[in-house]
From TrEMBL:
It comes from Actinomadura verrucosospora. Keywords: Transferase. One of its GO terms (cellular component) is cytoplasm. It comes from the Bacteria. This is GCN5-like N-acetyltransferase. Residues 1-152 form the N-acetyltransferase domain. InterPro entries: Acyl_CoA_acyltransferase, GNAT_dom, Ribosomal_N-acetyltransferase.
Amino acid sequence: MRPVAEADLPVIERLRTDPGLCGPFLWAGWSDPHRFRRRFEQDGMLGEDNGTLAIASGAGLLGIVSYRRVTAASLWCWSIGISLLPEARGRGAGSRAQRLLADYLFAHTTANRIQAETEAGNLAEQRALEKAGFTREGVMRGVGFRDGRYRDEVLYSVVRSDLLGDDAP
C-alpha cells in the first residue's frame, strides 16, 4: 500500500469507470473519469476526511483502497472501500490491503471504529473482510442503489481493541 502516484491515474480512471473492470458490484453508471485527476491535483487524494491509497505489488498497481469519515451514533469512524483489477481478485490481495488500511488508520488517527459496507450478494468481499479481521454486524435493507434497484448491504466493522488488544489506547 502506498500513496497514489500520477502514473497510477490512467489505471484508476479505467478501474472506476469501465464496467468491465469495475466488476458487477461497483459499476454505478458512467461518470466523469477526470474527477480522479482533479482530486489528485488538489491534494494527492489524501484529505482530512477521505483518502485513496494504491494497492501495489512491486511496480504494478493491483487496485485502490479508500476511506472516508462518517458519523456512527454520536462518534465518527472510517468507512473503507476497495476496488481491485480483475487479475488481482481472488488471491488474498483484498484482505491484505483492507487489513493494512485498518492498521494504518488505527496507527495514525484517533478513530476507534472502521466499517465497511458491501452488497449482500458480494460474497467474495464478505469473505475478504472476515479474513481481514472485520466482524459482520448485520444487513442494512435497501440502502444501496445499483442497476435500477435498491439493494441490501452487509455492514462489517473492526474496532481498535479487536486488532490491538484490550489495552489499546
